[in-house]
Specification:
The complex is a heterodimer of chains A (about 55) and B (about 425).
Chain A lengths: L1 E3 L9 H5 L5 E4 L2 E4 L9 H5 L5 E3 L2
Antiparallel strand pairs in A: 1-4, 2-3
Chain B lengths: L4 E6 L3 H12 L4 E4 L15 E3 L8 E4 L2 E4 L4 E4 L4 E4 L1 E5 L5 E5 L6 E4 L1 H14 L3 E3 L3 E8 L2 E8 L2 E12 L6 H5 L8 E13 L8 E7 L7 E8 L9 E9 L6 H10 L10 E13 L6 E2 L2 E3 L11 H20 L3 H12 L5 H9 L8 H11 L3 E2 L4 H22 L3 H8 L7 H5 L2
Parallel strand pairs in B: 1-2, 1-14, 2-11, 8-16, 9-22, 14-21
Antiparallel strand pairs in B: 3-10, 4-5, 5-6, 7-10, 8-9, 12-13, 13-14, 15-18, 15-19, 16-17, 17-18, 20-21
Helix pairs in contact in B: 1-2, 1-5, 5-6, 7-9
The chains are: A alpha+beta (about 55), B alpha/beta (about 425).
Chain lengths: ~55, ~425
C-alpha cells in the first residue's frame, strides 16, 4: 500500500500525471492514491521531488 | 449532462483557457475541464516571466492592464502586479556572471500566474465558456465526427461527447498518451523540480533573474534558479522564488534547497528569509510533436512541446487553436492551419535544435575554478537579447571565439571544452546529471 504524506506533498501533480495505472488523483485539492488500483510499481515514489509517497505495510 | 458541446478543452491553464475564450467568442458551445478544484491556485513551479523579445514567432508588449500580442493581433487582460527584471545573470561559484541586461525594456517581466489564470477564467466565463473543476480527463477517443472523453469526478466516471477536443493538459499530457502520440516521441528522462516561494530574501542584485551553477560549498554540483516575483495580493510582499532541478533519482529536493539557503555561497542573502509556499514539478522530457493533431483533437501549450512553451506562447497557441476549431467548423481546414502555424513558429520542434540550445549548459559540468575562469571571461560583456534557451547559443559562440585566448591562459581547459562543443553530440542526460 502506498500513502502520500500530506504534510510533505507540494501538490505539483507529477505523480498524478505519471502513475501508469491512473491510481492517483487530486480530490478536493488533496493528492490521493487509490490503493485498489495501485500496483506498487514505485513510480510515484521515484519521481516525487519531496518524497511524499511512502510504502506502508 | 446530455448537452453536446462543440468543443471540450482539457486543462484550464493559459493555453486551455485562451483556446476556450477564442472558440466561445466565435459562437461555439465550450466546456473546459480542470482537475484542480481551485482553478487559480498554481502549486506547480513555473518561472512566470514575460519575455520581451521575439518568442516562437510572436512579440508581446504590455500596455496598461493588457498584454498585446502583436503578430496575431489580439490582447488579453491582466490585472495583477509585475516585477520588472532588467537583468538575467548566470553566476559562477565565486560570483562571476554571464550578463544579460536591458535598459529600455526589462529582460523579463515577472507576473503573478494565479492572477493571470483568474483573469483568463473571468474572460472565459464572460464569453459563455463553462468551466468544470475537480474533473480529470482519463481517456479520449476520436469518433468519425467527434470525440468522446472519459472524465473522472470524485471517483465517478462519465463520458462526454463533443465535435472537437483540445488537449491543453500540459507536460505529461494524458491526452497525448491516450491518443498514442508518445509512442514515437523520444524521451530524455524525467526531471524533478522543487521550489520555495520566499519572503525576506536580500539578493545582491535586485530586479534580476539568476541561475547559480557550480559546487561551491554544496555537496555536489547544482543548478539553482532564483527570481523576484510579484505577490497575488496587492502590495509588495518582496517575494522571491528559489528553484532546484535535477533528473529524478530518489532524492528529496528540499534538502539541497535548504542547504543552499543555509550553507551555500550566497547564504547571507537568505539569513532572514522564510518559506511561504512550497511548489514542485515533474517533467517527462519528450521531443516536441511536429503534428499536434489526431483527427478531431489538437494539442496546445506544453502538451505537444519540448520542456516548456512559455506562458506567453501557451496563450498565443491557444488563440490559434481556438481559431482553428472555429474555421474547421465553417468548412475550412482550420485544424491543419493550426498545426502548420505550430510547425512554422515553434522554435524547438527539431530535436537537434533543443540539444543545441542545451549544449551551452554542458559547461556547467566543469569544476568551480574552470567555471570562475570562463565566467570571468564573459563578465565584462553585456548581452542585450534575452530568451532563456538562447543564452546557451551565446555561451557556445563565446567559447568557440575565445579558444585561442583560453589555449594561452588556461590550456588544461581546452580539451575539456573541445569535448563539450559541437560537433560532439552530448546527451542531455549526461550533462544534467551533475
Amino acid at each position: 500500500m502506498v500513502r502520500i504524506d500530506e504534510n510533505k506533498c507540494a501538490k505539483c501533480g507529477g505523480c498524478i500525471d505519471l502513475c501508469p495505472v491512473l491510481a492517483i488523483n487530486m480530490i478536493d485539492d488533496i493528492v490521493i492514491i487509490d490503493n485498489d488500483i495501485c500496483t506498487e510499481c514505485g513510480t510515484c515514489i521515484k519521481v516525487c521531488p519531496v518524497k511524499a509517497p511512502q510504502k506502508i505495510a | 449532462m446530455n448537452k453536446q458541446y462543440d468543443l471540450i478543452v482539457v486543462g484550464a491553464g493559459p493555453a486551455g483557457l485562451m483556446s476556450a475564450i477564442t472558440a466561445a467568442r466565435g459562437g461555439l458551445n465550450v466546456l473546459v475541464v480542470e482537475q484542480k478544484t481551485d482553478i487559480a491556485w498554481i502549486p506547480r513551479t513555473c518561472v512566470s516571466t514575460l519575455y520581451t523579445t521575439d518568442c516562437n514567432g510572436e512579440l508581446v508588449t504590455v500596455d496598461g492592464d493588457r498584454w498585446i500580442f502583436h503578430k496575431n493581433d489580439f490582447s488579453i487582460k491582466y490585472t495583477g502586479q509585475w516585477k520588472d527584471c532588467w537583468k538575467f545573470y548566470h553566476i559562477s561559484p565565486s560570483g562571476y556572471r554571464i550578463r544579460i541586461e536591458r535598459d529600455t525594456v526589462p529582460a523579463g517581466k515577472a507576473f503573478n500566474k494565479e492572477t493571470l489564470i483568474e483573469d483568463l477564467a473571468k474572460e472565459a466565463k464572460k464569453s459563455g465558456v463553462r468551466i468544470q473543476c475537480g474533473t480529470r480527463a482519463v481517456d479520449i477517443k476520436n469518433l468519425k465526427k467527434g470525440v468522446v472523453l472519459t472524465l473522472n469526478r470524485r471517483g465517478k466516471e462519465e463520458k462526454l461527447k463533443a465535435r472537437f477536443a483540445i488537449g491543453a493538459d500540459g507536460l505529461n499530457s494524458i491526452i497525448c498518451e491516450k491518443l498514442g502520440l508518445n509512442k514515437y516521441r523520444r524521451s530524455y528522462g524525467v526531471m524533478a523540480v522543487c521550489s520555495y516561494v520566499l519572503e525576506g530574501v536580500k539578493p545582491a542584485y535586485p530586479d534580476t533573474i539568476m541561475c547559480f551553477v557550480g559546487k561551491g560549498k554544496m555537496k555536489s554540483r547544482y543548478i539553482f534558479y532564483g527570481w523576484p516575483r510579484p505577490a497575488r495580493t496587492k502590495g509588495d510582499k518582496n517575494q522571491w522564488e528559489l528553484l532546484y532541478t535535477q533528473f529524478v533519482g530518489g532524492n528529496n529536493l528540499e534538502a539541497p534547497l535548504q542547504a543552499f539557503m543555509k550553507d551555500g555561497n550566497y547564504a547571507s542573502w537568505f539569513k532572514k528569509a522564510k518559506v511561504v509556499q512550497k511548489r514542485g514539478c515533474v517533467m517527462s522530457m519528450r521531443v516536441a510533436l511536429p503534428y499536434p493533431r489526431v483527427e478531431n483533437t489538437i494539442l496546445v501549450g506544453d502538451a505537444p512541446c519540448w520542456t516548456e512553451v512559455e506562458v506567453q506562447s501557451a496563450i498565443q497557441y491557444g488563440y490559434r487553436a481556438g481559431k482553428g476549431v472555429l474555421d474547421e467548423l465553417k468548412g475550412d481546414p482550420g485544424l491543419d492551419e493550426y498545426t502548420d502555424y505550430w510547425k512554422n513558429t515553434y522554435e524547438y520542434l527539431e530535436p537537434g535544435r533543443t540539444e543545441r540550445a542545451n549544449w551551452g549548459y554542458v559547461i556547467y559540468v566543469l569544476d568551480d575554478d574552470d567555471l570562475d575562469y570562463l565566467f570571468k571571461l564573459m563578465d565584462n560583456k553585456i548581452l542585450k537579447g534575452y530568451y532563456e534557451w538562447k543564452v546557451m547559443d551565446y555561451v557556445r559562440q563565446v567559447l568557440e571565439a575565445e579558444l585561442p585566448r583560453i589555449a594561452k591562459e588556461r590550456p588544461s581547459l581546452v580539451p575539456k571544452i573541445k569535448n563539450l562543443l559541437p560537433p560532439h553530440q552530448l546527451s542531455l542526460r549526461k550533462f544534467v546529471s551533475i
